[in-house]
Amino acid sequence: MSVGIKFYYQVTNPNEAKIIYLSTGKYKKDNLKDKNILKNNGDSNYNSNTYMYRIYRGYQIIFYKDGDTNGNSKTITVNHYENNDEYGSLSSLGSGYQNFKSIEIKRLDGPVIIYNNSNKGNPKHITGGTYNKSDLVDMGLINNNQNNFYSCDVIPGYRLIVYDDKNLAGNSQTISNEASTGNKYIIFNSNLRYNIKSIKIEKIPESFTTENFTQNSNNNMIYYILFVLFIYYIMTRKK
């Protein structure tokens, strides 16, 4: 499992700071007691001035006021495209959530995020695979035959292909991110945006990425130079 959140707090000696990592899943009241995040009486085991949290990019944390991961909740989402992880003190959660009794940690799976407006609104995280119109309807990307495609983020090493017909047919637009770091943000072609009927998300073969091509070319050049120098050395020795 991937680590989604880190709780940490200082004790008397700053060099003895305590760190607690939690991976994806649901943590009820008793689970949090076992991990020393809640006291035995169920209260939050923290000092509001020093007890902090760090939520990693690509994760969503839901804080609940009750101990069963139900009821009133406060959600913090840190999308893949954010520049930094989310840091904060538990006291900053406010409205009683600093005394949460249970939490849920979700990983925002999907190498592609699709938005329905220019403000990156209503993000949909989509995993790799092929999706037809019925799938896009289920995901809320098509409502009442109205498309909710405006723009997208594609993480490094992946490509998204959108089509204006079902079964990956018709006119298409390909968004590839061949970089090693940083998401690629693209606004969909205006002629295609309102007619998308199917999409495909796939990993770019490693040997096809621009960076690897450049790296391989550089390596080949080094080997060639070393070979020429070796031949030159042999030839001069014979003389």
Structure description:
It is built from four helices and 18 strands. The relative contact order is 0.11. The chain is 19% helix and 36% strand. The model is unreliable at 45-50 (pLDDT under 50). It is α+β, with helices and mostly antiparallel strands and 239 residues long.
Largest sheet: 4 strands, antiparallel
The beta-strand count equals: 18
Count of individual helical segments: 4
Q: Class of the largest domain, according to the CATH hierarchy? A: Mainly Beta
User: CATH superfamily assignment of the largest domain?
Assistant: Crystallins
Euclidean distance between termini CA atoms: 64 Å
Query: Any idea what the shape is?
Result: flat
**Can you tell me the CATH architecture of the largest domain?**
Sandwich
Radius of gyration: 25 Å
Largest sheet, spatial ordering of strands: 2-1-4-7
- Structural category is alpha+beta
Stretches with pLDDT under 50, minimum 5 residues = 45-50
Mean pLDDT: 80
Order of helices and strands: EEEHEEEEEEEEHEEEEEEHEH
Indicate the proportion of strand residues: 35-45%
Features:
239 residues; alpha+beta; Gamma-B Crystallin, domain 1; 2 domains; four-stranded antiparallel β-sheet; flat
Question: Can you give me a brief rundown of this structure?
Answer:
By secondary structure, the chain is of the alpha+beta class. The radius of gyration is 25 Å and the shape is flat.
